[in-house]
């Protein structure tokens, strides 16, 4: 997200600002149940999230649809990447938002452990049971209680490429990880570096690792590592780092080499492939690449910007890594009724369809008609996410305590940047990751 899904585009451009939405007239009956559709009139719902730029603009349309439906005014506050710190300071200052769009499972769990959250309503729970794969309920729950509704998801197992670059090199979308590296070297030989890697943003490197690890080590090991039930010094981690290091150490594969990758942020990596002066043929990241290629560089998705699924590594299965933003209700918010009604609204395909029509969005809600998405590529990625069901695995770094998996210049982000700079010793990197993880989990458990 975040960060990331997601959140990724928004986190890369995050600005701290607060926008107000003007109240609209009463509309149909509120999703809160009963009444004349105006029972929330006079209330102002404050929603905090990481989004800015195009993502914030599109989410505002969802807020406006809620206003039209219920009469409640809305106000969005952008937190930037440090959601936990910003929300904590607002709670301490007596100015807590009513709803927070949380981009990390670890942060949601942290909020619940601190007793900041309200359990979701029965109506929302019923919608989740009916219309979401069980994995999404699991990621939104703490100790069996549902606190988070996943409204926006990301398919983070997509590799985006320039069809022109592939045509020039005479290569096709690869079916395996080894084929992807071979195709990349062929693209490089044709005159254009293979991959634009956004090494300046450490979260993109965690996504690279997670796809390799899920495919190579398998979902059981992935779950164990995500929960720190095995150590980062496990041989499976070292092997995944070795696999990733083969890419990071190959100057034919990285636009600008390791130094260039470390100086490239996420928006810059997309620009290197789809901008006016291409510097690479491929960029790995989630489906949200499409929104940026379209909005920022005017590319026709499916024609001038295409993707292939992140290919399987060795004998493993193709990975499906996801991320997402979960809506939670804060106990200290001043408008509990409006907050609960808003989450009931977000649980409907009606709410998801508002953003789906704008692009840069996927919903884990199975009840959303795929025809709501604005183009065939989005429909394809959305179907892949839904069809994966419980084989989807949530972004591992987002499940970790923020000190390890979600802090710029620290923990996993920094250590994988160090590994990109020098990938010669995977075992040493694994040991450093374990030391940082052990410290972060110990602190989180004490808290």
Automatic annotation (TrEMBL):
Keyword Chloroplast: no
Record's keyword annotation contains Signal: yes
InterPro entries: Bact_solute-bd_prot1, SBP
Gene3D superfamilies in alphabetical order: Periplasmic binding protein-like II (3.40.190.10)
Leader sequence segment: 1-23
UniProt keywords, alphabetically: Signal, Transport
Entry-linked Pfam families: SBP_bac_1
Entries under PROSITE patterns matching the protein: PROKAR_LIPOPROTEIN
Family membership: Belongs to the bacterial solute-binding protein 1 family.
PANTHER family xrefs: ARABINOSE-BINDING PROTEIN-RELATED, OSMOPROTECTIVE COMPOUNDS-BINDING PROTEIN GGTB
Protein name: ABC transporter substrate-binding protein
Source organism per UniProt: Streptomyces coeruleoprunus
């Amino acid at each position: 997200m975040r960060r990331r899904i997601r959140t990724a585009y928004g986190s890369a451009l995050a600005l701290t600002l607060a926008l107000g939405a003007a109240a609209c007239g009463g509309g149909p009956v509120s999703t809160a149940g009963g009444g004349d559709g105006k029972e929330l009139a006079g209330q102002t719902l404050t929603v905090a999230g990481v989004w800015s730029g195009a993502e914030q603009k599109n989410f505002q349309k969802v807020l406006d649809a809620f206003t039209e439906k219920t009469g409640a005014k809305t106000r969005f506050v952008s937190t930037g990447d440090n959601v936990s710190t910003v929300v904590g300071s607002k709670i301490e200052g007596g100015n807590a938002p009513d709803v927070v769009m949380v981009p990390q499972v670890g942060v949601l769990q942290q909020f619940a452990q601190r007793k900041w959250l309200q359990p979701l309503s029965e109506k929302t729970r019923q919608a989740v049971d009916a219309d979401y794969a069980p994995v999404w309920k699991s990621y939104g729950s703490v100790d069996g209680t549902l606190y988070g509704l996943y409204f926006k998801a990301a398919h983070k197992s997509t590799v985006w490429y320039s069809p022109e670059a592939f045509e020039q090199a005479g290569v096709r979308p690869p079916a395996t990880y080894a084929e992807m590296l071979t195709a990349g070297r062929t693209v490089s030989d044709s005159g254009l570096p293979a991959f634009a890697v956004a090494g300046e943003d450490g979260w993109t490197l965690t996504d690279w690792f997670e796809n390799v690890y899920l495919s190579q080590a398998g979902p059981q090991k992935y779950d164990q590592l995500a929960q720190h039930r095995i150590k980062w010094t496990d041989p499976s981690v070292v092997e995944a780092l070795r696999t990733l290091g083969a890419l990071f150490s190959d100057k034919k594969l990285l636009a600008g080499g390791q130094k260039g990758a470390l100086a490239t942020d996420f928006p810059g990596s997309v620009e290197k492939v789809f901008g006016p002066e291409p510097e690479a043929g491929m960029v790995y990241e989630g489906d949200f690449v499409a929104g940026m290629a379209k909005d920022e560089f005017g590319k026709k998705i499916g024609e001038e910007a295409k993707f292939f699924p992140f290919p399987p590594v060795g004998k493993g299965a193709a990975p499906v890594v996801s991320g997402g933003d979960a809506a939670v209700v804060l106990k200290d918010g001043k408008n509990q009724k409006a907050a609960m009604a808003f989450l009931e609204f977000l649980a409907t395909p009606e709410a998801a369809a508002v953003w789906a029509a704008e692009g840069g969005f996927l919903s884990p809600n199975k009840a959303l008609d795929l025809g709501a998405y604005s183009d065939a590529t989005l429909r394809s990625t959305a179907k892949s996410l839904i069809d994966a069901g419980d084989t989807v695995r949530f972004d591992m770094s987002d499940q970790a305590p923020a000190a390890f998996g979600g802090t710029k210049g620290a923990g996993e982000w920094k250590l994988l940047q160090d590994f990109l700079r020098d990938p010669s010793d995977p075992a040493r990197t694994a040991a450093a990751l374990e030391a940082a993880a052990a410290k972060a989990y110990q602190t989180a458990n004490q808290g």
